[in-house]
Every structure is written in structure tokens, then in C-alpha cells.
Amino acid sequence: MLTKKSTLNLRVLLIAASFAFLTYCHACYASQESPSKWTREAIARWLRHQESIVRSIECTFESKPLLTRPENIPLIDQVCRQLGKKNRYIYTEQIVKANSFVVHWLRKGAKERWDTFELTDTDSRDIPRTPSRSRAFDGHLVRDLELHDKGPIGSIETIEGAHWHSTNLPDPYSFLYEFQATPYSKIVAEGSNFDMSVVVRDGRELIQVSVDHPSLDSKSFVLLFDDKHRLIERQYISQISPDPAPRLCERHVFSNYKKYKDESGELIWFPQNAVYHHYMGNLSDGTPVEYTANTMTIREIRFNVDIPDEEFLIEFPPGTEIWDGVAGLGWVQAMGEIAQDEGLSDLLEGTAPSRTKLSEASAKREKQNAGVSADDQVVPASDKPQIYSNKLANTRSWWPFAGLFVPLVFLLGGMIWWSRRKKAS
After folding, report:
1. What range defines the domain where residue 258 resides?
2. Cα 187-188-190 angle, rounded to 5 deg
3. Residue 303 in contact with residue 69, Cβ under 8 Å?
4. What is the dihedral of CA 206, 210, 214, 219, to 10 degrees?
5. Rounded CA gap, 153 and 316, in Å?
6. Which of 2, 213, 380, 402 has the highest local Cβ count within 10 Å?
7. What residue spans of 170-236 are helical by DSSP H?
8. Considering its fold, how many domains does the chain have in total?
9. Cα–Cα distance between 152 and 315 in angstroms, integer?
10. What is the DSSP letter of 91?
11. Which of 8-12, 150-154, 387-391 has the largest mean confidence?
């Protein structure tokens, strides 16, 4: 039979065990959420994981530069005089209009395609119309087609000739995953002058990472992540002639993140808005001077969709003037006699079905997915990575809880068994 003293001891033990369990759970939760627990290796693993699960993307987005702010014009003139620059970097209404468009964009592996439409075509159902420009990379060659009043003009170039891997194209994949064909996970893992610290902005902790590019001289980055591992801001620092030293060239701000989850519940966070601030130089006191900001807004985006390889080829209409930068034939005409010349014929014979059919198929897919929210998208995933030094990312690690909870259950069960046996005796 239990005495009053043994009952009191049992209660004290239960209270102490419960308090220890709750304290341990809170400590595990806090350590998982705090950016101060991050390590360089963990951040690189997290970025590498995100890059690996995004195998293809189909996206429609708007791209529009902003007018140069009037108060910045005299500052721009001042920097131009200091550096002897002739370009005033002034974005007028005419320049803004000429550089505003809607893009239907595809990515699969390294392959990529841009179909550009006028921004006035604000309805995504306009996509089946012929784009003003198409540019596609099939993994080997870059094909380009532009429609002009005097007729279509195209080109076929190598990767080097098209500067495909030496230009930081502002596409959705480069928002988060790569810089000029180099994954950000590789930059973080292998770059020199790495530094990491915790900063506070608007009352919340952010992790700030500074690192040089591992293979490109005079290029470095500052990355800011929130407590959900989402990239909030990226600063791109480089030295561009005639700049005397590396400076802030671009600042990328990402917002309005939306979550896309797969069948296992793993989430892909992706921003719906991106603003690329562009700076043309520094004042004498080091203050960067902005000349425009390019705003990009996601209309529709789908991850890991089936995209035929033919979509990354371009069919040149008959009569297109084509610049052959591969076989060295110079200017030729598509589908004419010279198009069958040795060299260029090999480049043209693998062209895609008509762009009208491809656009209609794309529009059909968009119609089928109309009204489907981001949370309903299914994105295949790979093994879950580790974002912290000892904790699993994107999901709570319940093993520490189980490691304490199971012994606690056995302890309580043993105490109940002991009390009943005592009572029976």
C-alpha cells in the first residue's frame, strides 16, 4: 500500500520528469529555428538540396524596369564625370516601354527557352500568339529569332559566342539557384573570404553570408536568409571598367514567397516578386548610385513538369536571315539553297515543330492548371538535407523527443506496476 510520503515522491518525480521533457523540447525547437546555429557546410547542403529537387520549371512572368528617379540624375552625372563615362544611364519612358515584356520561360536541366511578348498583352491567354522574340538553348547551341518589319532575323551561336554562361540572365532559376551557370551551393561551399554573421532587420534575426566567387576574379556576394532558410536579399559586387575597385553593382530583393509542396510534405519556397536594383557607380564617399530597378512578377509557375526536348529548338521561318556563328557561314537564309550548305544544314534539320503548336500546347497546360493554388502543386523531392550542424531541415527532428519520451513512458509504466504490486501485497 502506498504511503502519503511515497505518493508525494511519485508526484514530485512526475512533475520533474514532465518539466525536463518540456524544457528539452523547447531547447530542440529553439536550436532548430535560430539562424545563429547555422554553419557554412549546412547552408551549402541546404542550397544544394534545393537545387537538386528543381529539375524543370515552366513559368510566365512580367519584367519591367523603372524610370530613373529624378533626384538621382544629378548624382549619375557626377559619377559619369568622375569616371569619364559617356553613358548617362538614364531610363526614360521610351526606354522603359521598350524593355517591358511578358516572358513564357522554360527550363529543364541546363536547357532553357525564352518567348518574349509585349507587356500590353497582360492576359496569359495571349501566349499562343507569335512572340516578338524567341531564344533557346538546347544544351549545346543558342538559337535566337526576332521578328522585324523587314522580316525575321535569327542567329545560331555557341555557348561562348552567345555569352550564355557569362551573362547573369534575370530568369526565375537564377533568382535562387545559380549565377552564370555556377550553383550558389558551390559558391558558398568553395568561395574564399567566407564570413557569416547574424544581423537584425525589422526586429528579426537574419543570417548574412559574404563570400567571393570561387573561380571569377573580383566578384563576390552578400546573401541574407530568414529563419525559414529563404533568400531575402542578395548583393552582387564586382569590378567593371573603369571602376577603380569592386563595388555594389546589383542588389536583388525577393518577397511574397509562396510554398509548393510535394507528396511527402517537403516544401519549395519560391518568391513571387523580385526587384533587381542596378547601380552605375559610387559617389566619392562610397555611396552607390542607382539608375534603375528591374521588377519581375511571377504570374504562373510550375515545378518539375514534363517538357519535351523539342521545345528547346527554334524553327526559323522561310526567308529568315540567319547569322551562323557555328559553322562560320556568316549571313544565310533559312530554307533556301544555301541553308542546305554543309554545316548549317546539320544545325537546322533538328528544329522543333512550329512555335504555334508549341504555344497552343503550353496554353492548354495553363488552362488545365487554372485555379490550382501553389499549395496544391506536387513537386518530387530527394532526401531531406541538414541545414543545421546536427538538425534536419524543413522538418522537425522528432528523434530527440522520442529518445526522451520512450524512457519516460517506461518509467511511468514501471512506477504504475510497482504501485499496484505494493498495493496488492
Report:
1. 39-315+351-376
2. 65
3. no
4. 120
5. 9
6. 213
7. 172-176, 184-190
8. 2
9. 12
10. -
11. 150-154
List the Cα angle 33/36/40 in 5-degree steps. Answer: 105
Same domain, residue pair 296 and 420: no
Domain-located, residue 338: no
**Do residue 118 and residue 20 come from a single domain?**
no
Phi, psi of 182 (to 5 degrees): -105, 120
- Least confident range from 26-30, 33-37, 142-146, 346-350: namely 26-30
Tally of CB atoms within 10 A around 181? 13
Do 112 and 174 share a domain, yes or no? yes
Q: Which residue has the higher pLDDT, 201 or 174?
A: 174
pTM score over 0.85: no
Q: What is the CATH number of the domain that holds 279?
A: 2.50.20.10
Both 21 and 125 in one domain: the answer is: no
Task: Tell which phi-psi region holds residue 229, choosing left (phi > 0), alpha (psi between -120 and 50) or beta.
Answer: left
Q: Which of 107, 103, 105, 173 is nearest to 309 (CA)?
A: 107
DSSP designation for 155:
E
Quickly count: other Cβ atoms within 10 Å of residue 231's Cβ: 22
Q: How many CA atoms lie within 13 A of 340 on its CB side?
A: 3
pLDDT at position 244, please? Answer: 85
- Is the distance from CB of 204 to CB of 228 less than 8 angstroms? no
Cis peptide upstream of residue 242 (ω within 30 degrees of 0): yes
Q: Are strands 153-158 and 141-146 parallel, antiparallel or unpaired?
A: antiparallel
User: Which pLDDT band, with edges at 50, 70 and 90, does 404 fall under?
Assistant: low
pLDDT in tens, 338-386: 343 344 555 554 443 333 333 443 444 444 444 434 444 444 333 333 3
Whether 101 and 67 share a structural domain:
yes
SS3 content of the chain, % helix, strand, coil (to 5): 30, 30, 35
Write out the E strands in 66-100. none
How confident is the model at residue 127, as a pLDDT?
55
CB of 135 closer than 8 Å to CB of 124: no
User: Which run of H or of E encompasses 401?
Assistant: helix 399-424
Q: Is residue 145 part of a domain?
A: yes
| Predicted local confidence at residue 242, as pLDDT | 81
- Apex 378 CA angle, 376 and 383, nearest 5: 135
Q: pLDDT band for position 262 (50/70/90)?
A: low
pLDDT at 207 over 90: yes
DSSP 8-state symbol, 35: G
In a domain, 134, yes or no: yes
Instruction: Examine residue 355 and state whether it is found in any structural domain, yes or no.
Output: yes
Residues 8 and 58 in one domain: no
